[in-house]
Amino acid sequence: MSDLYGYLETHEGEMLQDIQALVQAESPTRRKDLVDACGRVLAQQFQDRLGLTAEVLRQEAFGDHLRVSYGEGEAQVLIVGHFDTVWDPGRLPLRREGDRLYGPGVLDMKAGLVQAIWAVRALQATGTKLPYKVVFVCNSDEEVGSHSSRSLIEAEARKSKAVFVVEPPEAHTGSLKTARKSVSMYRIRVHGRAAHAGNHHEAGVSAIRELARIVQYLEGLTRYDLGTTVNVGVIRGGTRSNVVPELAEAEVDVRAVTTTEANRIDQLIGELRCARDGLTVEVEGGINRPPMERTAATARLFGIARDVAEELGMELSEALAGGGSDGNFTAAVGTPTLDGLGAVGEGPHAEHEHIVTRHVVPRAALLAHLLARGV
């Protein structure tokens, strides 16, 4: 057992206490007051565990972001994590059943943030010197697209040798994520002409009928062989059954493995036109997160992580994830990015969201050793 692992194992109880404290500070993204209160809990943990003062980056629409720097040097490694959640206050109780800890945001991704703090704490406590500084960016709006934090994350990534994202790993395998699909979101509105369905049906032009045609077209753009999916997840339209509908709209989700594919679908959606006179179509939205593409530099970084894991008696694999994270942004600016270095568990955004507590120490040790190894 390494000194780093031994230190973390000795302090497992305190790590779990910190996780519970952060989870109890509920932080639904749209509640700035609660997110800021959670941010203060997180900032206090940086102070208590590392003796570091968090730089608070004030925001108006969302919670304030935190930036924390440990160590010295011109070179840096970036750790990225968010502390906002998808859960309304009181929606999920914090509870422990055996080695499972349940609660809002415990997996996605508050436990990962605590593990990262303690990974650096282990380095600090054992006198392990790093050849670079470690910068934490903890943001408050990841669950709604990171609109206010994207520029901050990208700027820090450009200054970094590598980025470690402490989102959870793949649920059943514990795999790190070396690639993620892009996330594109669109709202499509079709405008037609209303008319009485009984007396003057021929005078109306149905927006729903046209939207149905567009939905068929969009769904047909899915290419499983290329890893591209187009999903029309929500449709709305019309007012009453006896009125030809003058308005219909759809919400569309697009995922793609490569930038080329994301751009191709984006162009096709932008070029949507109506097939009949008397109709117009509007398209809002676009590519929210570019794909996190697996590069040679990311593969090399994963190789280091796999070697470290082997030394710790762990098996480590890699995976492509369909969901997006802030790692999409850091990879897109060209910085090698490893995602999935957070807590092990299941159920992000689900009522059974939980972490498996026996993995907290090993995963924190993995990150600590990875930082110590150098990149």
Fold blueprint:
Elements: H1 3-10, H2 12-24, H3 32-50, E1 55-57, E2 65-70, E3 76-82, E4 95-97, E5 100-102, H4 106-125, E6 133-139, H5 150-158, E7 162-165, E8 176-180, E9 183-191, E10 195-196, H6 207-219, E11 229-237, E12 243-244, E13 247-255, H7 259-270, E14 280-289, H8 296-311, E15 318-321, H9 327-332, E16 337-339, E17 345-346, E18 354-356, H10 360-373
Parallel strand pairs: 3-6, 3-7, 7-16, 8-15
Antiparallel strand pairs: 1-2, 2-6, 4-5, 5-18, 9-13, 9-14, 10-12, 11-13, 17-18
Helix pairs in contact: 1-4, 1-10, 2-4, 3-4, 4-10, 8-10
Structural commentary:
By secondary structure, this protein is α+β, with helices and mostly antiparallel strands. The chain has 2 domains: 3-181 and 291-373, Aminopeptidase; 188-289, Alpha-Beta Plaits (2-Layer Sandwich). Helices cover 35% and strands 24% of the residues. It has helices at 3-10, 12-24, 32-50, 106-125, 150-158, 207-219, 259-270, 296-311, 327-332, 360-373; strands at residues 55-57, 65-70, 76-82, 95-97, 100-102, 133-139, 162-165, 176-180, 183-191, 195-196, 229-237, 243-244, 247-255, 280-289, 318-321, 337-339, 345-346, 354-356. The protein has a 6-stranded mixed sheet, with helices on both faces. It has a 4-stranded antiparallel sheet with strand order 4-5-18-17, covered by helices on one side. α2 (12-24) crosses α4. The longest helix has 20 residues, at 106-125. It starts with a helix and ends with a helix. The model has no long low-confidence stretch (mean pLDDT 97).
